[in-house]
Amino acid sequence: MYSKHTEIFGILGYPLGHTLSPWIHNTLFQLSGYDAVYLVFENERWKEIGLAPLLDLGVKGVSVTIPFKEWAYTQANQVCEASKTMASSNTLLLRDGIEAVNTDGTGALQSIKQHNVDLVDPRIAKNILVLGSGGSAKGILFSIANELKIQANNREIKRKVHLLARNQEAMSEIEQSLGNPTWLERTKLEQVMQNKEDYDLIIHTTPIGMKGVGGERILDSQFFTKKHTLFDIVYNPLETDLVKEAKKKKAEIIPGYHMLLYQGIRQFELFTQAKAKSKWIKKVESILLQELKKRK
After folding, report:
1. Where is the Shikimate dehydrogenase substrate binding N-terminal domain (predicted)?
2. Catalytic positions
3. pTM for this structure?
4. Which residues belong to CATH 3.40.50.10860 in the chain?
5. Residue-wise over 178-216: b if at least 16 C-beta within 10 A, else e?
6. Where in the chain is CATH 3.40.50.720?
7. Which fold has domain 110-255?
8. Structural fold of domain 7-102+258-294
9. Which one of 15, 19, 25, 245 is least enclosed by Cβ atoms within 10 Å?
10. CA 73, CA 89: separation in Å to the nearest integer?
């Protein structure tokens, strides 16, 4: 039941026909007893319209998806460090001015740590392989960089992160934005295949494998072993061809939808200033998985 006290949140983007965000947030509002509703604000003209209609409506916060993340960042008078580094935001808080936040990287990092904290331990002399150099890669690398620095606590970072992508300019931007750290290196496919035993975590950030998206897989079944963990952030389909190949070789898998789940959880906490309980997270994950299975 909604009243004049019900707070309004939502998702801003285009197209939004298949968005799962309302499932995440409205379930969390219900479980937490927070008096709010999460709506879909679908329009391809947000850059022309601006945020005034949402502010007039009293909207307290929005999730932002493609193609408006870079635009959202420019609308804020206060921005988080991740947004500033990436010049991109997936969350706008509208309570006191306009604050831009990016939870994409924190969602990915949380997914990895939930699976195995050793995969981002700076004391372990293993390598992380990041495939792709787009917005998702930037966000994930920013969060991994922060995690390595915090955990290292001014000690040597033994773990390396290797970046494999075609866009040289985008890789340069990532390196510069992170301050050209010594633990971040570019690599080539031949080197990756030769040194595959040195990797324990592979993060695939490109849209290849997504429903309706073509393209040749960057890695094939010859790469994977049971010592690898693959995190493919694509969640529709639930299992991409890359994931299927990795599973055949007994590699461990971090489900792609976990990034969607945990970045949404962080948004909920920013929206409500309340901590999500683990039993709520499990419930939302169950609903999310059921919904994704329906969309096969």
Report:
1. 11-92
2. 69
3. 0.90
4. 7-102+258-294
5. beeeebbeebeeeebeeebeebbbbbbbbbbbbeeeeee
6. 110-255
7. Rossmann fold (3.40.50)
8. Rossmann fold (3.40.50)
9. 15
10. 5
